[in-house]
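Worked example
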Amino acid sequence: MNRQQETVGIDYFRIVAALLVVANHTSPLSSVNGTADFILTRVIARAAVPFFFMASGFYLLSGWTAGREADRGKLFRFLARTALLYSVAIALYLPVNLYTGAFGAQGWLRRLPKDLLFGGTFYHLWYLPAAIMGAAIAWLLLQRFRPGQAFGIALLLYIIGLFGDSYYGVAEKAPVLKSFYEALFAFSDYTRNGFFFAPVFFVLGAIMAKPSSRLETSRLQPGICSAGLTVTLALLLAEGLILHALGVQRHDSMYLMLLPCMVFLFQSLLLWKGQKRKNLRDISMLVYLVHPLMIIVVRGFAKTIGLQRWLIDNSIVHFLAVAGCSFAAAIVTAPLLQIARGQRTASRRSQTSRAWAEINLANLGHNVQALREAMPNGCALMAVVKGNAYGHGDVGVARHLNQMGITAFAVAAIDEGIRLRKHGVKGRILILGYTVPERATELARYHLSQTVADHDHAQRLNAVGKRISVHIKVDTGMNRLGESCEHVSEIASIFSRSNLSIDGIFTHLSDSDSLKPESIALTDRQVRNIYRLLEVLRQQGLTLPKVHIQSSYGLLNYPDLQCDYARVGIVLYGALSSPDDETKLQLDLRPVLSLKARVALVRTVAAGESIGYGRQFITERDTRIAVLPIGYGDGVPRSLSGGKGHALIHGCPAPIIGRVCMDQLMVDVTELPGVERGDVATLIGRDGSAEITVEQAAADAGTIANELLSRLGSRVERVFCYAQEPNANQAPRVPRKRQARI
């Protein structure tokens, strides 16, 4: 099963776990019932941190349990990110520590190493060094031992820690054990740390990622998980209450029944299938970090305005206020964290990729906003993501657009639509091209909308017997797909097909990208044809579905057409088809894609030598060339050979010399001093003050931007980032001046 389709439960439970952490530090039931508050905060809420550890082990260490080496790089990046986060958190709470005099207390300097390694410099920060240490120990165990053996060793560490925590009252009755734990407490105030507490949950998470460790029979899974979770949770509650009543707990983080309870809880979460929600990970982590600050803020605010009775003394209201402020702060901060992470990811991948396309999601979002503002009231944007989103990466683009509120997409073929559905893209997905009726079952299964190519196609789709959504294509002059607008009775009869849900009707303007008089006349005729047909259908008593007429140029040149959707393709990605295209509506659109490659080799070729295939280029002087590991197999047109195209290196143009090969091309860098292996060459995009637009690159190749972008190959890695394109000293991509709508 696709990992992306089985971890949504983990992501959603992160929010529950974050709330439990806030509850643990605010005691929401303390003013209602002490026992109930103990059960919530000292027993149930103790599942939060183990859950976070298990989730990390699930993603980081699963390779070892599957009989292969885990991704070391992923683990080391986790350790580095957590260490960085710990450093930031220490700095964040430094003013609070200074205010409370923590660094002025006697012996604070002697305690500092212990706090940094085990306890955290603020009471909740112990989790971060524990995560670092626990992940490292679990990694070492899984590297050296079989999963079962690694779990056994980690379990032994947990049991040792258990008797220094909830069962300490038992251990201290034995003088030898008491002396042992007193020695331990000289190094760490609690055994709830990265050495005794965390490793077992990291190992459990890794084991849970192995399919054979899970319950296989789908009918039994929910029942077994529910029963197991219910029983183990009840035993956990009983264990906590008994230990509390006996007064043997030194602390109350580690319980014996916590382990089986977490196994059944995690197994239950794995049954929740859907698309991963990475934003919830950031939000839960930020809530964990900032909620003590929000406790201070709420208390300070309550004292300032005299509402201590409600915001402090009322424990439930206090909890809700702290939780609300914490989530508000996290939701505001999470996008900034996402931007920073995207930049780091782009930088890291670009250092290792031979060739890559940077997809600027900030510019994509900017373009969406600009296009929305250009549309008439009531018109929604239908994002055209066919052809791998014009080469930009259909899944990444569509999922980002989903987050921006875009709920309508258009693709060319059924398999493109299925791919989006399997990756969790929500909303309407319209297939613009022909789909054979034999695949109607898949249309229904994946909730895809199919274009009806003509009356016969509608009949054949209906005959399959599956209820499917369709949009009727009307030919008004394109003379491609669609039932002729003159065949009113045939189009009207499609509405009566019992298995077809008519959710849209549309046409395609064949010459809306031109402002020549004859082109305008043809477009006007097409518009009149479709509106006349719609009026006739309305007069026949038919309820009209969603109407869409405009594609990218239809919107830019005919923005006032009253439609329900505008099918926006090339301009969504900040480009026009050709550099000389003029449009009536001029928008501030920004390029989304940059195409780059890393210099593989720099060499000097003597005068009179040939470069590349066919001796097309003969050097007239000693020529310094750079070899770029990208070619027509990656989508760089062969027609850019012989100086017709160029790349930017160090912000300067370097002409392509010789023929573009399948996997490589050569550029002349004789006039560019300092070019070395590893330097970045830009074939589309900006380098310093210089820019190669996709329109210009396409024109040099004798084609249009649509074709050039959609032919970028799968070997070109798509790296999604969030940097806003700078506007200073930048020539407009599409003329900036807005004109009134026609």
Observations:
- Residues 360-573 form a domain with the TIM Barrel fold (CATH 3.20.20.10).
- The CA atoms of residues 469 and 514 lie 33 Å apart.
- Residues 315-350 form the longest helix (36 residues).
